[in-house]
Amino acid sequence: MRRKTTLLCSALISITLCGCGTNTTPEIIMPDHPMTSSVTTEQTSAAPAQAADSTETQSTASGSQYTVYLITMDLTDSYWKSIDDGCLSAVNELGNVTYKWIGPDAHDDALQSACIDEAVTNGANAILIAANSADGVNASLQKASDAGCKIVYVDSAASYDCVTALSTDNIAAGITAGQTMIDALNAAGITGGTIGVMGVTADTASCVARETGFRQAFEGTDFTLADTVFMQDNADNVTNAVQDGLAQNYVGFFGTNEGTTVALGNAVKDAGTESMIVGFDTSDAVLSLVSEGVIYATMQQNPSVMGHDGMTIAIQALEGTYTDTNTTTDTGVTVITQDAM
Questions:
Q1: How confident is the model over 71-130, as pLDDT tens digits?
Q2: Same-domain status, 150 and 184
Q3: 3-state secondary structure of 154
Q4: Distance, CA of 309 to CA of 87 (rounded, Å)
């Protein structure tokens, strides 16, 4: 993808809190070297009518001033904070951006659509969004586009047109996860058996794509992949599925995001047994289970890159120096195992 860099003076001040939703756990990922923002921030309580938090940063640079919103699937998890950190880093470099991070606290299209509408009402020139589903927020995205907003996807894209989408190539990452498990099982002398698959929701496009790639990796092998069990924001769904799978001698389990991966690891650990677990994301909880040997491997993404480059390109699009549309960039994954830590 073509990139052009614009460097302006930096000055970032203030953080305020607000939002639009109720609590969940989607995917949580931390990069190898989490970004530390150079901004001076101040936290305040949310207004009583608002149920979630957001961060707002405003530069004091001269020249054209742009308002950019980051809208994630929720505001509670460190994965989204890593994207926010990347955005803040870019805002610090650009210097002419008023930036705000908002989002619901549940995987809900209507709640996320309300956040998009809020951004438009408040004068957003560009919206960076991790879309909750492929089609569920398209109507609000169209309203945003009609109002002149530039749309940039980070982590998870909707099907509506955009400037660019920065995310993991989730099918390719799923294939990598599947091949990682196959290699580990074969090294242990296991060449067949049933593997449990844990998803988030049927509409979480990024996780569905990871599962698609994972299943592709097993085509032509003697392994059987069980029907997907969806966590639906309730870790007990995964715990119960693991207990059933262990009772049926499943040889492994795959988690498509941080929530499912941690739930898998904890369920196997609590059962006092061992099983081959491959998952996604690198929160502290996931890495702890990898270091203990409970989880064999996890796929590490690069959310801070998504935020930084997404913000930079959004401003370039507003300034007319980036003219491409519907481009995509794979921000990559790294396989993290106990030996690699």
A1: 999 997 778 999 999 999 999 999 999 999 999 988 899 999 999 999 999 999 999 999
A2: no
A3: strand
A4: 8
Give the residue from 227, 304, 232, 294 showing the smallest Cα distance to 262.
294
pTM score? 0.69
Query: Cβ neighbours of residue 70 under 8 Å, at least 6 residues apart?
Result: 83, 84, 87, 99, 100, 101, 102, 103, 127, 128, 129, 154, 307
Q: Percent of the chain scored above 90 by pLDDT? A: 76
Q: Do residues 88 and 57 lie in contact, with contact meaning Cβ atoms separated by under 8 Å?
A: yes
Under a CB-based contact definition with an 8 Å cutoff, are residues 103 and 162 in contact?
Answer: no
> What is the C-alpha separation between 309 and 44, in angstroms, rounded?
28
- Buried/exposed code over 257-282 (b: 16+ C-beta within 10 A; e: otherwise): bbbbbbbbbbbbbeeeeebbbbbbbb
Encoded tokens for 302: 């690069």
pLDDT band at 203 (very low <50, low <70, confident <90, very high): confident
- Residue 202 token pair: 């049927």
Residue 161 neighbours by CB distance under 10 Å: 12
Which CATH number belongs to the domain containing residue 216 in this structure? 3.40.50.2300
Establish if 225 belongs to a structural domain.
yes
User: What confidence tens digit (pLDDT) does each residue in 126-174 have?
Assistant: 999 999 999 999 999 999 999 999 999 999 999 999 999 999 999 999 9
Within a domain: 194: yes
Domain assignment of residue 338, yes or no: no
Residue 229 has a CB neighbour count (10 Å cut-off) of 19
Kindly state whether residues 17 and 142 are assigned to the same domain.
yes
DSSP letters for 235-280: HHHHHHHHHHHHHTT--EEEESSHHHHHHHHHHHHHTT---EEEEE
Q: Which domain holds residue 213?
A: 170-300
The predicted structure's pLDDT at residue 3: 36
Domain check: are 220 and 278 in the same one?
A: yes
> Cα separation of 313 and 302, whole Å?
17
